[in-house]
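Need tokens for this chain, all 339 residues.
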Amino acid sequence: MLPWFENGNFPLYLAPMAGVTDRVFRSICKGLGADVMVTEFVSSEGIIRRDDRTRKYTEFDDAQRPMGVQLFGADGDRMAEAARKVIDWKRPDFIDLNFGCPVNKVVSKNGGSSLLRDCPVLAKVASAVARGVGDQVPVTGKIRIGWDSGSINAVEVSRILEESGMAAISVHGRTRAQSYGGNADWEVIDACARAVSIPVVGNGDIASGRDVEHRKDTTAVGGVMIGRAAMQNPWVFRDAKHYLATGEQPAPVPAEERWALIREHCLAAISWGRYGDERQTMMAMRSRLMAYSKGLPGGKRLRSKLCTVESTAMLEDIAAEYMDYYSRRDQPAGDTVAA
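Here are the structure tokens for all 339 residues:
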């Protein structure tokens, strides 16, 4: 068993999300209580070609462990070769195989969720990687519940993955056709967890400690994976652990703390340099900043400004204007705020 499931532990995973869960954001979430990390999905062919850009997706800090590198592809032997290269570079705690990505550019190459329609190939890929990696590190898999509502086969796929040597499975409770719409089907996730003897991690619609507690108490999953909720509220991990320990829902994160984390994220991203210079990095950060704004009052107005950010100076001006406006708005009648 993977050690983070032992002794009754119920780990909180940060879901791998392309363009979101880079090294900087993972560090932030780790500091706020996330237990297990997985990189953004990485092309196995890019790894084999030793493409520098692809290799950057596999970077992580030891403080983020336990840490997995997620690979996608449709050729098991090539994916095994890529996994061995990743292990040689940094030795992650596990290799994760992406059988759930709904994005067209991945599906069109017979990767991601396209393999849910071809179980023999999926089994061949999973077995080849598990066999190719051997006992160097565990191999896990991430799936969706099926291709569409007429072909929900996650229980069958979970059994195949267990037989293929996977050490754990993450199940996103939506079909590929749903993408990220509709509700996650936790009945199917629960059925998967009861069908296999390896840990199953449930993914979908987890946004609070109450959600974590509910799925822990009412399903057989061994942990949960949090994705989109963490994009706007990385404090969800800290708050969930507080709720599980005390039964109390923490107070909302103050605006000052939110802005402090936003600044921290931007400065760390600039220092890292993956996206280029300051201007290029801040432009790349726009979608991340707009996600953070969803946790703030007046978020719609704020997003109209954040979508034009090109520098930390612009961000500081927006933050100062925002805090000044809301400090004035929140003053009791008769009080004044100095200009």
